[in-house]
Amino acid sequence: MTNQPGTGNFGTAPQAGPGGHRRRAAEIDIDEARKAFFLMVGFIVLIWILQIANWTDHYHLDGSYGIVPRSLGHLGDIFTAPFLHVSWNHIEGNSGPLFVFGLLAAYRGVVKFLGVTLLVAITSGLAVWLFQSGNELTVGASGLIFGYFGYVLTRGIVERNLIDALAAVVIGLSYAYILTVAVPGAPGVSWIGHLGGLIGGIASGWIFRTRRREPGRGRAKPPASSGPGSTGTQVLPVGPGHPRADLHKELGDMGL
Asked: 75 and 129 in contact (C-beta within 8 Å)?
């Protein structure tokens, strides 16, 4: 037990009020947003460094680490393909929405974001590996973009967070050109990878949702009363031979 000087309360520890809890929650949100920002900056820097290395090597990294449908040797490349791109136009088109949607996905929890990224990479990559036609090589972060979009939108709906849901819709409309290449038949684009990423993002919104404690759970129940008007204390009977039997009798007659 500690005492805060000047409070006048001895033997009690100070307790944070509702305002203190709100300030603490705001500080946590700001800290997570800061982590998310630097994480996505690092992500963008990484894919651009790889793009430079890929370009100087005449894009041989794409052939070595891209997804080739139903090729067992390229199955593990579902985790490397999102970091590679086939041209400067490709990476330029992906960098903006990848940063924005990634930031929205990460600012409420970096650890959850890493789990979402892993799940989306798996669903998007496996969709391409299983269902893409021919021997077409597939690389690019578009599957992650659609996954992050699906995650933010689903998270906002599941957790009843209107801000997240509206942000996903508004920013999605601002990058509407991405949706135009997500339909079947777009030349040179793996709409299957986009669809797989979107499915993974929607699933992530449910799997990584914030689970709230039900009201009253975990609280101790008050002791059961022994009858109407009872205060919860127990009265022990005193036998006739007890040294204070007379005193108890007199108190009982007085109703005490």
From this structure: yes
Handedness of CA 201, 130, 140, 195 (dihedral sign): negative
Q: How far is CA 15 from CA 18, 61, 217, in A?
A: 10, 58, 21
Helix residue ranges per DSSP H, 57-141: 60-65, 88-106, 110-131
Q: 251, exposed or middle or buried, with CB in 10 Å at 0-12, 13-18, 19+?
A: exposed
Q: How far apart are CA 166 and CA 6, in angstroms?
A: 48
Of 212, 106, 96, 99, nearest to 164 (Cα)?
106
DSSP state at residue 5: T
In angstroms, the CA 64 to CA 210 distance is 39
Q: What is the pLDDT of residues 54-82, one digit of tens each?
A: 999 999 999 999 999 999 999 999 999 99
Radius of gyration, CA atoms only, the chain: 31
Residues 6 or more apart whose Cβ sits within 8 Å of residue 81: 65, 66, 67, 125, 128, 138, 139, 140
At 112-151, the pLDDT tens digits run 999 999 999 999 999 999 999 888 899 999 999 999 999 9
